[in-house]
Amino acid sequence: QIMPATASEVIVLGEHNEDAHDARTMTFLSHLDAHYKADSTVRCYARIASYPLYCLLLRERERRYDHLDVTFFNFYENWAKRIWSALPPAHGISYDPLCRFADARKRIRLVIVGFEKMGQALLVEAVRIAHYGDGRVFEIMVYDANISTHLRRFLRLFPALSPQDKRGNAIAITSSSALQFPMTCRKFAETGVHDVVYTDQYPEFLNSPVADDVVTVALTSSATDDVMTYAHTISVKTQRTVNILIRQDISHANVD
């Protein structure tokens, strides 16, 4: 039993991996809103498990509740912000900026492996904040064997990240489109992100001994064993220094 009338703030988390998590959360918020009187407003934080739904909720302009001042948050965006931003260490873990040890003449490359919820959040956050005032080149490559399926869904939410043809015209991507990869988005050069490349092929430049860039690879799959295997494969095959970020949903799993 909860006593909402006595709370100054309410945090709604839901259960991990429960069925219809977000539907349950939205229903609970509606019921909670009905508990309060006309002259009261309570601050509320609610976790939304679905990254696409979270993005849609952020775009709502009309107030959804009469007595709740709701801030939605999402696991994937929170970690994307923590990785790309200079935030204090969390549980002893800190992340260096992508360009920390880079010569100003070198390009910065980010390779996102896996383009489901976590990969999409990392891309959006990187495009939003990874701008370098010294004019260095920053490129992003998104690699996923099933990129065509994920890209169609992603671009419904973020059409500004649509790839263009050689003339700079946006490529229309529909459910029936036959997509030929790699595809490149070149719309953000003025902000510092020179290219976003979508591909279904392994980035072969990782095997090149030429190191005229600083590379960070973000492995975003939730399958911990597969991710560790992939990280080991990269470390064995590559002939250059590569920074590798590994998603680990098991807190005690370690990679040396």
Question: What would your notes on this structure say?
Answer:
There is one protein chain. The chain is an alpha/beta fold. Helices cover 27% and strands 20% of the residues. It has 6 helices and 9 strands. The strands form 2 sheets. The chain has a 6-stranded mixed beta sheet, with helices on both faces. Helix 3 crosses helix 4 (117-129). The relative contact order is 0.11. Residues 252-256 have low confidence and may be disordered.
Task: Give the structure's gist in a few sentences.
This protein is an alpha/beta fold. The chain has helices at 21-33, 51-58, 75-84, 117-129, 147-157, 224-237, and strands at 9-12, 42-47, 68-73, 107-113, 138-143, 183-185, 193-199, 213-219, 242-246. The strands form 2 sheets. Strands 6-7-5-4-8-9 form a 6-stranded mixed β-sheet, with helices on both faces. It has a 3-stranded parallel β-sheet with strand order 1-2-3.
